[in-house]
Amino acid sequence: MTDIAQPSTPAATPVPPRRRGALQKLWQNQTLWRGITAIIVFLVLWEIGARWDEWFGKEWMIPGVGLIPPPTDVAVTWLDVLPKAGYWESWVSSFRRVISGFLMAMLLGIPFGLMLAVNKYFRDLFFPPFEILRPIPPLAWVPASLIFWPTNEMSIAFITFLGAFFTIVINVLGGARNIDVRYLRAAQSMGASQWDLFSKIILPGTLPSIFTGAAVGMGITWEVVLAAEMISGGGTQGGGGLGFFIWNSYMGGSLEQIVVGMISVGIAGYLSSSAIRAIGDWYMPWKRLF
Amino acid sequence: MAQDTLDASVKATDPTAGKSKVELRNVSKSYGDEWEQERVIDRLNVEIKPGELTVIVGPSGCGKSTLVNLIAGFDFPDSGEILLDDKPVTGPARDRMVVFQETALIPWQTTYQNIVFGPKLRGDLRGKALQQEADRLLAKVGLSEFKHKYPLQLSGGMQRRAELARALINNPRIMIMDEPFRGLDAMSRGLMQEFFLRLFEENRRTNLFVTSEIDEAIFLADRIVVLSNRPAQVRTVIEVNLPRPRDYKMLSSPEAYAIKREAMGILHEEAMKSFKSGSGADFAEAYGKGGGGGH
Asked: Which tens digit of pLDDT belongs to each residue from A55-103?
């Protein structure tokens, strides 16, 4: 008992300041560890919730949660699926659709939004029809585009494009219109031409809104692609994708595989938005300060 | 001695310093639709004399900022004319640089990029010469260490100094200061006033300084133009004959006190009128006979 009361080591050993290596930084990154802990806790709770009825009998099954396969079963199924080419083809085709639709939306949406912002006549002409088309949900376009476009793949691309396009345009327009008029005036006093005002003030001033629009648009794109893949189904053209993977698992009655598909979509979406964030940080160093 | 050489270098790069003037003749400006127009400025006559620091004071909302926009050329008068060295103002140009309220440094450019923005646009100063001039101004405003920082990384006072440098590099014929030190804490504000005064007294570039602080006006001005409540007209012009270079102690001199009394009296009257027109009530009636004071 007496030795417990004694301090085992001298209390204050001064730690010499050392340069921290990359690995050590990672180890000391509290945010990262909190995130990992949260995910582990979530998985443990899910496991317990899903296995409750197994351990305590059917009458103790937690409604809803009890029907979901536990994460360990999902992991086993996932390991099963991982080496299969079909699973990765689903990833590839979904990603291809998301990226092509998203890029088209950026390519057309950014100039269109900027035109709406800087030119009053353009805005008077194009904003009203744009505002009427905007509230139509992308999925409401599905039947019309299936009829209109020659292939399923093209209809999916079109619907995906729509999902991101409206969001990007609205963000670009709002961002460009909200630029502090004093920046423009200061530049004018210093002799800026119309093109200078556009390229040196309006465009960089709109970048934050462009990236906000891109992040939100990317989310919508994933939603739309998944739904479109489920609707259009498998087959030779316009088939596959993670949406079809989930739908196919549902038709085949594999609960575990449904969850594998869902988590895959979650990871894919996370990767996409991380990429946009990283590009945004790189393009806008002045936003990275705090 | 160091002061003299600095003076000489400034004058060398600044041939127009202290020579330009601005005249406003019968300038009127209204805003709003045709059937609901509000006259902001009414037949205003102001002269900004060469090499002087003219301060404009007036009750808040009296049209001071409109006046700045007109002189800078961001907006145009409905009638009357604005002359810079006897030539009418036709739009914004580098001969009239504005230092804006709060700060109008471009957030996505570093201090250095902000400062070289104008010359780079026009291409009239480039390469090594531009770098040297920018570095000279950065040193002058005490921001050499901060040249690669973004505006958001600077304190309020530093932002104002960076903005002064950005205006000065364009070598304007007149500097227009639109309540430039608004939003600074009292300490930084005092320091900025002293800094600005030193800068002005170095080369006497024609200056228009708009403020709502009477102490600031007296401390800085050669002449104070006191504006009326909206629509803005000149109520009075006060010559400030305090010696230069100035320091803070002069604010407690009898002359300064007399000017303050005169200006405060007029401003108070105008503020009362504005209160009346804003609420339809008399201030004294609304808050009892004890209200007001300051006569």
From this structure: 887 777 777 767 788 899 999 999 998 888 888 988 998 999 999 999 9
B92: Cβ contacts below 8 Å, ≥ 6 apart? A185, A188, A189, B72, B73, B74
Structure tokens at B149: 């920082």
Q: Which residues in chain A are closer than 8 Å to B179, comparing Cβ atoms?
A: none
Q: B52-62 in b/e burial notation, b at 16+ Cβ within 10 A?
A: bbbbbbbbeeb
Mutation site for A-interface testing, chosen from B65, B101, B117 by largest number of A Cβ within 10 Å: B117
Which residue is associated with the tokens 């270098």? B9
User: Are residues A187 and A142 both part of a single domain?
Assistant: yes
Buried b / exposed e along B132-143 (16+ C-beta atoms within 10 A): ebbebbbebbeb
pLDDT of residue A110: 95
Distance in angstroms (rounded) separating the CA atoms of residues B110 and B117: 10
Dihedral of CA atoms A118, A119, A125, A130 in degrees, nearest 10, equals -10
* Mean pLDDT score, B84-92: 91
CB of B201 within 8 A of CB of B193? no
- Looking at the 3D structure of chain A, how many domains does it have? 2
Shortest Cα distance, chain A CAs vs residue B175, angstroms:
11
Together in a domain, A90 and A67: no
Chain Cα centroid distance, residue B106: 20
A189:B104 CB<8 A:
no
Tokens 């990429």, residue? A275
On the CB side of B248, how many CA atoms lie within 13 Å of its CA? Answer: 8
Say if the ipTM goes beyond 0.90.
no
Residues A171 and A193 in one domain: yes
Contact B150 A286 (CB under 8 A): yes
A205 and B108: CB-CB below 8 Å? yes
Residue A107 sits in the same domain as residue A235 = yes
Q: pLDDT per residue over A33-58, tens digit each? A: 999 999 999 999 989 888 888 888 77
Q: Are residues A108 and A40 in the same domain?
A: no
Whether residue A99 sits in one domain with residue A33 = no
* DSSP conformation class of A202: I
Strand residue runs (E) in chain A: none
A219 and A250 both lie in a single domain: yes
Domains of chain B: 53-74+177-295 (3.40.50), 102-171 (no CATH)
**Same domain, residue pair A35 and A121:** no
Positions of chain A with pLDDT under 50: 1-11, 235-238
Contact between A186 and B100 using a beta-carbon 8 Å cutoff = yes
